[in-house]
Write a structure and sequence with these properties.
- This protein is mainly beta.
- The protein has a domain of 107 residues: Lipocalin.
- The chain has one helix and 85 strands.
- Strands 1-82-81-80-79 form a five-stranded mixed beta sheet, with no helix packed on it. Strands 7, 8, 9, 10 and 11 form a five-stranded antiparallel beta sheet that branches. Strands 2-85-84-83 form a four-stranded antiparallel beta sheet, with no helix packed on it.
C-alpha cells in the first residue's frame, strides 16, 4: 500500500488519535498520554478533574504509537516517517531520545515488555528488540498475506491476516529465532479489522462489524467464540473496547456503550459522537467525542470533567471556499498568502485589455480606447489620446510616451500627437530613443522637436525574438542565441542557452530571460548563467520596474525575488510591479462568470504563510452535516440531526419530530427554462417514512422554505446531482432519477439491480456509485435520463465510509483506517492505487480531475488518480485570494 505525504494542515494538531492509559508518573496516579497527529500530551486525573501537565509538539506527523516498558519506567514509542522515536513522560515534559532509523515505512506499532512489532510489510512482521540486542528481525508470513491488526499479550502476538479469507494467528515470540504459530482461527462472512488485547481477561477480542470474536487462553489451549450484538440502530459498527473488571465495555459507532460478561451484552449508556474508550479503573473511564473532546466518566457513564480540542469532522469544499464543521462550531478555512491590499477599485471589463505599468502609472489598452490610471487609481488620461489605440507603450511619464502598433509609431508629448508609419514587431526605449525590431532588422530612432530621426539600422542572420534596453541592448534570436550590443549595434558578448527566448528584462545586476517552454534563465552582464528554473511548459513573459520583477506563464503569475519564485493566487488575472516603492498592481477576478474585477495595489508582508481558520458560526447544538454552495460562500448545515440552518441570515428550518436529515446537497437545476440554485435534503423518520425536501432560497428576504416535498414509505438515505437536468436519490434499495425542468418533480431512470443497505451515493454525468453498509459498492452507467445500466458490485474486505467519482475512477475511503482506495469504473473494476494517509478521511472532493481529501485532524491531500506518486501540490491554489483577503480583514 502506498504511503502519503503530509501536504498541508488547516490547524495545528488539535485532534486525538489514540489514548494510551497507564501509570506513567507514579503507580498511584491515574494518567494517560493522548497521542495527537503531531503531538503528545500527558494528562492526569485528579479530584475528578482532567489536567494537562505536559505537551510535546512533533515537527512531523505521528503515524502510530504504543506503550513500551523499560526496566524502571514506562515510555511511549511512536512512528514518524521512517523513524522510530521513544518519549518518556515526566511532570516537566517529554524526554525524547535519539530516533531509530527504519528501512521501511510502517503504519502501525504495538509492543510488550521486551519487543516492538512493526507492520504491515510485504507479508511479514518486523520485530525490534529495544532492550538487549537493539536488532530488527523480519518474520515472514504466508505469501501474499496482508496484516490488518496486531496485539501482544505477554509473549504471544495475535495477528489478523488476510489471504483470500481472514485468519487470526497467534504466534509465540519467546524465542525470536524460533517464532511459532500456536493457534489459527478463520473468520468467514465478516470483515474483522481490529484486535484488542486484555491481559486481565487472558483474552484477545477481535472487532468485526457488529460481532466480537473472543479468543481466550486456557490450560487446554486457546478457546475461540463468536458473539453477535443485535443493535437495531443505523450504525451498529463496533469501534472500540476496554476492560471493566472481569467484564468488557464495547463502544459502537453510534455511541452505544455495552457491557459484555462473556455471554450477553447489556446497554449501559449512549454517548453521541464517542470514538475511543479507555478504562482508568473499575469506576473511571476516558472517552473521546468526535476525536476532539476528552471526557472523564464515572461508573454510571456520567461526565465528571472534559477538555476540548478542535478537529475536522464534516467539511465542504467549492472553488476557493473550504467550510469545516467541528462539534458546535463552523469554521471557514483560508490561506494567508502574505499579501496586503493597500487600495482597490472596481473594474468592469467586457474583454481583458492589454496592461502596461510605467513607474506610478497603469496604461490600459482597449481595442477602442486608451486609459491611464495613477497610483491613487484616478483616471488621468489626456483627452487627446482617449480614442487612440495602441498595442505597445513605452513611457517616461503619462505626458510623454511612445505608442506603437504593428505599422505605426505614435509620439505623445504634453498634449501634442505625432504619428509615423513604421512597421515593428518588438520594441524598447531609453528616454527619447526608441528601438524597434522587424524580422531580422534592428532600428533605433531618436525623437526631438516633433521629429522621429532614424539613427541606426542593422540586419542580423536570424529573426529577432525579443529586446531589452538597459545600459546596453540585449537581443534574443532563434535557436537560443543571446547578444549584448552597444548603442552603435556592435556585438559585445553572445551566448547560446538552448532555449528560444521571447521575453527579456534588465535589472541593475542581471538579465532575466523567459523561454517559450516555461523556463526563466538568469544571467549576469557577462552572459554567465546564474540560475535556471521552470515554472510551466508554455511561453514566459517578464515585466519589471527597477529590481521588482514579475512573470506570467499559462495564465498564472509569479513574484520573482532573490529568495526565489513565488506563485500567486489562482484568481489573479494580471500582476506587475508598480511605482518606485515595494508595491505591485494586480487584477483580481470577482466571480468566474462575471465581468467584474478588482484592481488592487498590493505589497508583500513578512507574515508566515499557511492555512488558518476563523469561526464563522457557533451553535448550542452539535453539527452533523454541512454542504457548501458551488459558486459562493453559502452553506446549509444540520444541527442535532433535525435543525437545518442556512448561512445567509442564519435562517432556521426545523424538521418534524423524530425526523433526521440523512443528506444535504446543493443542486443547480434546470427549472422552467433557467438554472436555479436549490438545496435538497433527504430525511428519515423511523424505519417506514422519509421525505425529499427541495428548498428554494430567497436571499433578499432571508427565507428558507421548501419549494417541493414528497413523502415516501421508507427512509431516503442519500442524494446526488448528476447534472442540471438530472439527479438521483436512494430509497427502498432503489436508485431513482428526478428532474425539475418542467417546474415540478418528474421521475426519471431507476436502477435495474437491487442494492441493499446504501449509506452514500455519488454521480457524474456518466456514472453512479452507491456505497453499501460496510464492505461493498455498486457501479452504474447513465445511458440516458430514462435508463441506467448496472456495471458491477465491488465486494472487498474493508469498512468503507466515503465514496467519490473522479472521471473514470471511483475513490473509497475506510471508516476505521486512514486508507483511500482508487478503482477503475468498468464491468470489471481494477484497483489502481491503495494509499495510506495519516487519519481517517472525512470528505472527498473532485478538483479538476484530482482527488482532494480532508482527514479528521485537518490534513489535506491532493492525489492524482493515475500517478504512481502522490502529487505533492501546493494546496494553497485551492483557495482564492479574494476569499482569503476577506477573511483576514473581516
Amino acid at each position: 500500500m502506498e504511503k502519503s505525504k503530509w501536504i498541508k494542515q488547516i490547524c495545528f494538531d488539535n485532534s486525538i488519535q489514540i489514548l494510551l492509559c497507564d501509570h506513567f508518573i507514579h503507580p498511584t496516579v491515574n494518567d494517560c498520554v493522548v497521542v495527537g497527529h503531531s503531538s503528545l500530551r500527558l494528562i492526569i486525573m485528579k479530584s475528578n478533574n482532567i489536567i494537562e501537565i505536559a505537551r510535546y509538539n512533533h515537527s512531523k506527523p505521528i503515524i502510530s504509537a504504543s506503550i513500551v516498558h523499560r526496566s524502571n519506567h514506562i515510555e511511549i514509542c511512536f512512528i514518524s516517517g521512517q523513524l522510530l522515536y521513544f518519549a518518556a513522560p515526566t511532570l516537566k515534559g517529554f524526554n525524547i531520545s535519539e530516533p531509530v532509523p527504519l528501512n521501511f515505512t510502517y503504519s502501525s506499532v504495538t509492543s510488550n515488555a521486551l519487543l516492538i512489532c512493526l507492520y504491515p510489510r510485504n507479508s511479514s512482521l518486523t520485530f525490534y528488540d529495544h532492550r538487549i540486542t537493539k536488532n530488527f528481525i523480519n518474520f515472514d508470513l504466508a505469501k501474499n498475506s496482508k496484516v490488518w491488526s496486531c496485539a501482544f499479550m505477554g509473549e504471544n502476538l495475535a495477528s489478523l491476516e488476510f489471504q483470500n479469507v481472514f485468519r487470526v494467528k497467534i504466534y509465540n515470540t519467546k524465542n525470536l529465532n524460533y517464532i511459532r504459530c500456536v493457534a489459527t482461527y478463520s473468520i468467514n462472512y465478516y470483515t474483522p479489522y481490529r484486535i484488542i488485547s486484555v491481559p486481565s481477561h487472558n483474552s484477545f477480542y477481535v472487532l468485526a462489524e457488529s460481532t466480537i470474536f473472543h479468543i481466550q487462553s486456557s490450560e487446554k489451549g486457546w478457546i475461540f467464540n463468536k458473539h453477535s450484538i443485535d443493535i437495531r440502530r443505523s450504525d451498529p459498527l463496533l469501534v472500540d473496547a476496554t476492560p471493566c473488571g472481569v467484564r468488557l465495555l464495547v463502544l459502537s459507532a453510534d455511541g452505544l456503550v455495552l457491557r459484555f460478561d462473556g455471554h450477553k451484552f447489556e446497554l449501559v449508556a449512549e454517548l453521541n459522537g464517542a470514538t475511543l474508550l479507555s478504562s482508568l479503573s473499575i469506576s473511571r473511564f476516558l472517552i473521546t467525542l468526535e476525536s476532539c473532546r476528552l471526557s472523564m466518566l464515572d461508573r454510571d457513564m456520567l461526565p465528571l470533567d472534559e477538555i476540548t480540542y478542535a478537529n475536522c469532522i464534516h467539511s465542504s469544499y467549492t472553488q476557493g471556499n473550504f467550510t469545516v464543521a467541528s462539534q458546535n462550531s463552523i469554521y471557514t478555512a483560508f490561506y494567508d498568502y502574505g499579501i496586503e491590499v493597500i487600495k482597490y477599485a472596481d473594474l468592469r471589463l467586457k474583454m481583458k485589455p492589454i496592461f502596461y505599468t510605467i513607474n506610478n502609472f497603469l496604461f490600459i489598452l482597449y481595442k477602442d480606447k486608451t486609459v491611464i490610471i495613477d497610483s491613487e487609481f484616478r483616471d488621468v488620461t489626456p483627452s487627446a489620446i482617449k480614442k487612440l489605440t495602441f498595442e505597445r507603450i513605452h513611457a517616461n511619464s503619462q505626458n510623454s510616451f511612445f505608442g506603437l502598433t504593428s505599422d505605426k509609431i505614435t509620439v505623445f508629448e504634453y498634449g501634442s500627437i505625432f504619428s509615423f508609419n513604421e512597421k515593428s514587431t518588438h520594441s524598447a526605449h531609453r528616454l527619447n530613443t526608441l528601438y524597434t525590431t522587424m524580422m531580422k532588422s534592428l532600428t533605433s530612432f531618436f525623437y526631438t522637436s516633433s521629429t522621429l530621426i532614424k539613427q541606426n539600422k542593422k540586419d542580423f542572420d536570424s529573426e529577432i525574438y525579443a529586446i531589452s534596453v538597459g545600459n546596453d541592448i540585449c537581443l534574443s534570436f532563434r535557436d537560443g542565441l543571446i547578444y549584448i550590443i552597444d548603442d552603435e549595434f556592435y556585438t559585445r558578448k553572445k551566448i547560446n542557452i538552448n532555449h528560444d527566448i521571447f521575453s527579456i528584462i534588465s535589472t541593475e545586476r542581471q538579465i532575466m530571460l523567459g523561454s517559450d517552454t516555461g523556463e526563466i534563465v538568469i544571467v549576469n552582464y557577462n552572459l554567465e548563467i546564474i540560475s535556471e528554473q521552470s515554472i510551466g511548459i508554455s511561453r514566459v513573459y517578464l515585466t519589471n520596474v527597477g529590481n521588482k520583477v514579475a512573470a506570467s506563464c499559462e495564465n498564472s503569475y509569479y513574484h520573482i525575488t532573490e529568495k526565489g519564485i513565488k506563485k500567486l493566487p489562482p484568481d489573479f488575472r494580471y500582476f506587475s510591479p508598480f511605482g518606485n516603492n515595494e508595491t505591485f498592481i494586480a487584477l483580481l477576478k470577482v466571480a468566474s462568470k462575471s465581468r467584474n474585477y478588482n484592481l488592487l495595489q498590493i505589497q508583500f508582508t513578512e507574515q508566515t504563510l499557511g492555512f488558518h481558520h476563523k469561526i464563522n458560526l457557533e451553535l448550542n447544538q452539535q453539527i452533523t452535516k454541512i454542504n457548501s454552495a458551488e459558486q459562493n460562500a453559502d452553506y446549509v448545515c444540520c444541527a442535532s440531526k433535525s435543525t437545518l440552518l442556512w448561512s445567509h441570515g442564519n435562517t432556521l428550518f426545523n424538521l418534524l419530530e423524530n425526523e433526521e436529515a440523512k443528506s444535504i446537497n446543493e443542486w443547480r437545476a434546470n427549472h422552467s427554462n433557467k438554472v436555479v440554485q436549490f438545496w435538497v435534503v433527504c430525511t428519515k423518520k423511523g424505519d417506514n417514512e422519509g421525505r425529499l425536501l427541495i428548498f428554494l432560497l430567497n436571499r433578499k428576504e432571508s427565507k428558507f422554505k421548501p419549494l417541493l416535498q414528497k413523502v415516501f414509505n421508507a427512509p431516503l438515505v442519500a442524494f446526488t446531482a448528476s447534472s442540471h437536468r438530472l439527479a438521483f436519490f436512494v430509497t427502498n434499495d432503489t436508485i431513482t432519477g428526478i428532474s425539475l425542468e418542467t417546474g415540478s418533480l418528474i421521475p426519471k431512470a431507476k436502477s435495474n439491480a437491487k442494492i441493499t443497505d446504501v449509506v452514500a451515493i455519488d454521480s457524474s454525468q456518466k456514472y453512479i456509485a452507491a456505497l453499501a453498509d460496510q464492505r461493498k459498492f455498486s457501479l452504474f452507467e447513465i445511458i440516458s435520463d430514462m435508463e441506467l445500466k448496472f456495471l458491477s458490485v465491488v465486494d472487498r474486505p474493508a469498512i468503507y465510509g466515503r465514496i467519490k467519482i473522479i472521471g473514470n475512477y471511483v475513490a473509497v475511503s475506510s471508516r476505521v483506517t486512514p486508507s483511500l482506495t482508487i478503482y477503475t469504473i468498468s464491468e470489471n473494476p481494477q484497483t489502481v492505487r491503495e494509499i495510506m494517509l495519516l487519519s481517517p478521511v472525512t470528505s472527498i472532493f473532485d478538483v479538476k480531475g484530482k482527488i482532494f481529501c480532508n482527514c479528521i485532524c485537518g490534513e489535506m491531500f491532493m492525489i492524482n488518480c493515475e500517478d504512481q506518486e502522490i502529487a505533492e501540490l501546493d494546496t494553497s491554489k485551492l483557495f482564492s485570494f479574494s476569499h482569503s483577503a476577506y477573511m483576514l480583514n473581516d
